[in-house]
Amino acid sequence: MSEYKKLSASEISAKVKSRELKAVDIAREAIELAKTDGKKLNAFITICEEKALAQAEAIDKKLENGDAQGDLLGVPVALKDNIIYQDYETTCGSHILDKFKPPYDSTCAKNLINAGAVIIGKTNLDEFAMGSSNENSYYGPVKNPINHKLVPGGSSGGSTAVVAEKIVPIAFGSETGGSVRQPASFCGVLGLKPTYGAISRYGLVAFGSSLDQISPLARNSEDIALAYKVASGRDQMDSTSVAFEHPDYLKELNSSRKFKIGIPKEYFVDGLSDEIEKSVRDVIIFLEKNGHSFTQISLPMTDKAIAVYYIISSAEASANLARFDGVKYGLREGKDKDLLGMYGDTRSAGFGDEVKRRIMLGTYVLSSGYYDAYYIKASKVRELMVRDFEKVFESVDLIISPTTPTTAFKIGEKIDDPLAMYLSDIFTAPANLSGIPAVSLPLGKSSDNLPIGVQFMAPHFSELSLFQISKQLESHNN
Ligand code: GLN
Asked: Which residue in 98, 219, 275, 424 has its CB near the most CB atoms, within 10 A?
């Protein structure tokens, strides 16, 4: 294995800063891996070679002159292809955005570049981030690096696969209902869904705006903390983004703080694999031995999460995706027809089946006569879920649970059964609906050697607690 693959983001940054390594050599190596290993996994839609090499050269030059700053100096990163990066196509894994090149950068991309990161590519995803297996991409499915017959999870399957395959130490995906934590658990890496509002959504192509959050993936606690720090903060281009102070993560991470942790009884139910349950129980035993305390808690609205999530996210998606009509972006079909004919032909040809299903579902739940029965009711239940979490967090610091009910499944296994696919989100969607941060940590293996993810949830803006518990557990699985 090459030296580069063994390095974490913080190690690369330190070595580039001390000029032991050149940013341009690191970038070349990452791009080469993207073209070889990344291709085998179908993980990239675009490789941003030209700009990446120019960025890396500029960093080396600045270092020569002694004025380069940043937490991710020379660190290669990848962005899910629904996060905008100027001059390169943003496809969202959809045919409808064919050849669309955005004329501006997302705030996330800007923040990364300001921290010295080198964006090497845009990763494959389920079309418009709708899916749990990465099979809904116009560009074909991504493969799980551990076993190419399995899905990597979704919708951020490409970003997750390139971190697991060690092509980059950090990548960014997006979460609406679990799209980073679920693939993180399927591929054996860390995935963080930050507090809603922590990372600007400016330049993230909208799916469900009240849920969407750009979310980092990494292979260790320090890197996930650094990625979060660099990407987050108040941005005047996103009115839902929030200003807050970051602690010194690298120092605070080593705290031996003892947590009060809740075990929600509704997360250990029929349908949860025995091996996953056992992994979570093992983590509980390990943490108890190390002085953390546990109590049983109840989150009574948990069994409503899938229904509420699919009503609200589809309602918002049907509105957000109305803009793709052949006028402003990408594909245009039915050029010889009148306006409505052109809209219809473009959307019929441009969207895949799953996106069409969500648009129809969303349009239905928002339609007159059904709006109160579905959308308003789901919004009320969502509020009850928020209150459930608030109540529980009065007495515990963290909640522990499985991330997913099963380990990675076979490509093709669930594609014709949307309901079975939707059930993969059962343990992740509650954090999105209530806006709290949650992390999936790779803390177990099944008998067939597949990774198992354990999830921790925390109160709003308590990411530090998630990083600290992650750091304390890092020794457990090794
Ligand atoms: N699997 C969920 C869905 O298909 C979550 C997607 C996401 O978080 N972007 O909607």
From this structure: 424
